[in-house]
Design brief:
The complex is a heterodimer of chains A (about 500) and B (about 280). With about 500 residues, chain A is mainly alpha-helical. Chain A has 16 helices and six strands. The mean pLDDT of chain A is about 90. The two termini of chain B are about 20 Å apart. Chain B is an alpha/beta fold. Classes of the chains: A mainly alpha (about 500), B alpha/beta (about 280). The structure holds adenosine-5'-diphosphate (ADP) and magnesium ion.
């Protein structure tokens, strides 16, 4: 090959290598950036006075005087809203009254007319037409009133969601009903719903999807005393909610309340830690011992070939199958716990990562120079002593790397714990409770919040906070593996 | 330079700067009787019979693949590690059959230390390397271990170089130092026999000569059996030499005699560099 060609190929390869690294980094960035940005939203956001009030009342955190001062300010700003609402209610009540009056009049007139029997046909017909017209008019007014009342109910509900229950009303049961929007971003969504009614209309072509149309809610209240409410809310939202930049680092260490509407994700984090460590507790000793057996003791033969096939097959089994297996075997057959528990989940996860641990350990043990073993044996060491004192320590970086990577795997798995360990809401457990009780866990709760939660949209930030936490947890584990590996390798290589 | 001077020291090797052998104890230490080693069907060592005297340095020479290592590794049963490897005939250590049914391999290896071709210290501290054997054999306590370590390192002529770096990783030492550390490690369990399989083939000339000097110093206290590729080295360090060829023992005798006046034609051909 000519030198020029070779150089060209060399350069091409280098460019290809650098290109693929850049691509990988870009992909990682594209993938990670939204997670980080949206996940941070759980920790850093613009919290409203409702948030500060909740934090003070439920968690006992915050400056009482400052919150009370802010609250007074907010109440002042909200007063016109409630005044306008009650004025409008009064208007509706008046409307009802006058309608009732008119109806009474109408009935009286109708009776009257029926009594006049001597009227000419022509007159009779005219009077009847007049009555019909009046009846229709009354019906229309009644419908109008009912419509306004329905709109008012909807509006009041939305306002309650935005600002919390009106002062002086009875306190609802759920925390989420006791307070208005605690986050400014969610408050703006609610504000939008107040100002605009969203409807979906068919297009002319029935094959086309329907289009979203926003109609100002104010249109429905055209010409009533409530009409000025909408511009008022729009212009005074900030004054009513007082958004401030808020840091909520305790998101990591608070337990959750009211189905993740409030509080943090500590039960999930703790559950993930329990499950992961538990899985390690079972998988590491078993995996390392199995690897030692396969490398150092097993004679290549039928049995070992079968064993290897088992291990490789195990590595390829879909994780949901492990979940079902865990339920069927550990819980239903072995009865390690009455129902779902951290213990059963750990065992199931251990099954899942066992092949990884075995393979990584096997590789690491095989990579230890045979001369180490020879040296140990030549000094009179027994085989197991040589394994324990020379081979395993030399294989440690590889073994540890395998262990930590499988820890990351165990931490992030959802399917195996669905049937064996995970629940959507729970308190943080003590280690001894983990033996018999189920736990929330990050991967499962991310899934749960994304799909099954009653108010998926309301608490997206919690879901993303969990995702970010899980990603960071796994990254942290991998970083720890790299550092650990480097340090031990350095020690081994002088 | 003629080929002759390249391959052999001189026809009449008197081995100039070598210390005279200590009063030769005539005890036989290792005796092979019709001893063979097989790898599966391949007979790598074929019915060799000779006696290795105690307290002397015996060199085993021969071309590559002639069974030197195989024979050496039979003496401390390192061949046990190789599947399909078995021995036949007799190999006696102080009249006890090395392959006998009642032999304790661990105890045997304690009596028969080994130094390998490539220096293979453990990836542990210098101290832990030397203390590894003694710890197996029940020596406990820092001071007692320190004692053994120091004594062994002195015997291996390494103490002065490493006394300040005992806690450091042994892999940081130079190749020659590592090999002497391996010798110290072997010595530390107080063996009677030291097997050395081409102990200098991975070292530079200076380190080689230090190891050779060291072997000279070990003479008398240990029975040294050293495989070497290098005939000058065999001539320099050994009292007796065994010449293996294709699994057969061709010649065995005092080194001076073997090199100056070989009985066998093939020995002469080999040491004069006609093949090998
Ligand atoms: N592990 C082994 N398995 C099978 N045959 C081997 C093995 N080691 C060595 N042999 C064979 O035994 C013969 C002697 O080898 P060896 O003792 O290593 O020679 P030397 O050390 O003299 O160079 C050679 O033919 C070699 O191919
Ligand atoms: Mg060899």
């Amino acid at each position: 090959m000519r030198l020029g060609t070779r150089k060209l190929i060399d350069r091409g390869m280098t460019a290809l290598g650098i290109g693929s690294i850049v691509l990988l980094a870009a992909a990682l960035l594209v993938f990670l950036a939204p997670i980080v940005v949206r996940g941070l939203g759980a920790f850093v956001f613009r919290g409203t006075i409702e948030y500060r009030q909740l934090t003070l009342e439920k968690f006992g955190r915050g400056d009482v005087d400052a919150v009370e001062a802010e609250q007074a300010e907010a109440v002042e700003a909200r007063r016109p809203v409630y005044e306008m609402l009650s004025a409008y209610k009064k208007e509706l009540a008046d409307g009802h009254e006058s309608l009732d009056e008119a109806k009474k009049q109408f009935r009286a007139d109708r009776k009257e007319m029926r009594r006049h029997e001597g009227l000419a046909d022509q007159q009779r017909a005219d009077a009847q037409a007049e009555l019909d017209r009046r009846e229709a008019e009354l019906d229309r007014r009644g419908e109008q009133l009912a419509k306004h009342e329905a709109s008012l109910v909807e509006l009041e509900e939305l306002i309650r969601e935005l600002l919390g229950p009106e002062p002086g009303q009875s306190v609802p049961v759920l925390w989420r009903d006791q307070y208005g929007q605690t986050r400014w971003d969610r408050a703006q969504v609610k504000l939008d719903q107040i100002l605009n009614v969203e409807t979906w209309v068919d297009q002319d072509d029935p094959d086309q999807p329907r289009v979203r149309v926003l109609v100002p809610r104010a249109d429905a209240f055209e010409g009533t005393t409530l009409a000025p409410l909408f511009p008022y809310i729009e212009n005074n939202a900030e004054a009513m909610l007082l958004p401030r930049l808020t840091f909520y680092w305790r998101f990591l260490t608070d337990t959750s309340f009211d189905a993740h509407f409030f509080g943090g994700i500590w039960p999930e984090i703790l559950g993930t830690i329990y499950l992961t460590l538990g899985a390690m507790l079972f998988a590491v000793p078993m995996g390392v011992v199995a690897a030692i057996y396969l490398v150092e003791y097993a004679r290549e033969g039928f049995l070992v070939r079968v064993l290897r096939t088992f291990i490789n097959t195990l590595a390829g089994v879909p994780s949901i199958v492990f979940g079902l297996f865990g339920l069927a075997f550990f819980i239903s057959t072995m009865h390690v716990s009455p129902s779902k528990s951290v213990l059963a989940g750990s065992m199931t996860l251990a099954m899942l990562i066992l092949p990884m641990v075995i393979r990584a350990s096997e590789e690491a043990i095989r990579a230890v120079p045979a001369t180490y073993k020879e040296a140990a044996l030549s000094l009179g060491a027994s085989k197991w002593w040589a394994v324990l004192t020379v081979i395993l320590p030399a294989a440690l970086p590889g073994v540890l790397t395998g262990i930590v990577i499988s820890m990351g795997r165990a931490a992030g798995e959802t399917a195996p714990i669905i049937f064996t360990a995970a629940v959507s809401v729970g308190k943080p457990l003590w280690p001894w409770e983990a033996l018999s009780q189920p736990t929330p866990a990050l991967p499962w709760n991310i899934y749960n919040l994304a799909t099954e939660h009653e108010a998926v949209d309301e608490i997206r930030h919690v879901q993303y906070g969990m995702v970010l936490t899980l990603v960071l947890l796994v990254l942290l584990l991998n970083a720890a593996a790299i550092v650990m590996r480097a340090r031990i390798s350095k020690k081994l290589r002088a | 330079m003629t080929e002759n001077t390249l391959h052999i020291p001189a026809r009449k090797t008197t081995l100039p700067d070598r210390k005279p052998a200590p009063a030769a104890p005539s005890r036989v230490h290792v005796r092979a009787e019709e001893f063979s080693v097989f790898y599966g069907q391949n007979e790598a060592v074929r019915k060799v019979s000779f006696e290795i005297p105690a307290g002397q340095v015996t060199a085993i020479i021969g071309p590559s693949g002639c069974g030197k290592s195989t024979f050496l590794r039979a003496i401390n049963r390192m061949n046990d590690l190789i599947p399909g490897c078995r021995a036949a005939g007799k190999l006696l250590l102080d009249e006890n059959d090395v392959f006998g049914p009642r032999i304790d391999v661990t105890a045997l290896r304690r009596r028969v230390g080994m130094v390998f071709q490539k220096p293979n210290p453990f990836p542990k501290s210098v101290f832990d390397n030397v203390a590894y054997g003694p710890r197996i054999h029940g020596v406990r306590g820092r001071t007692r271990l320190m004692d053994v370590v120091q004594r062994s390192l002195r015997k291996a002529a390494l103490w002065d170089e490493v006394k300040d770096r005992l806690p450091q990783n042994a892999l940081g030492l130079s190749g020659g130092q590592q090999q002497r550390l391996c010798i110290a490690r072997a010595i530390a369990v107080d063996p009677e026999i030291l097997l050395m399989d081409e102990p200098t083939s991975a070292l530079d000339p200076q380190a080689t000569s230090r190891i050779e000097d060291l072997i000279g110093e070990l003479r008398g206290n240990y029975t040294v059996i050293a495989v070497t590729h290098n005939m000058q080295q065999a001539a320099r360090i050994s009292d007796f030499t065994a010449f293996f060829y294709e699994g057969d023992l061709i010649d065995f005798g005092p080194t001076t005699q073997l090199f100056t006046n070989p009985r066998e034609k093939r020995t002469e051909d080999y040491i004069t560099g006609r093949f090998g």
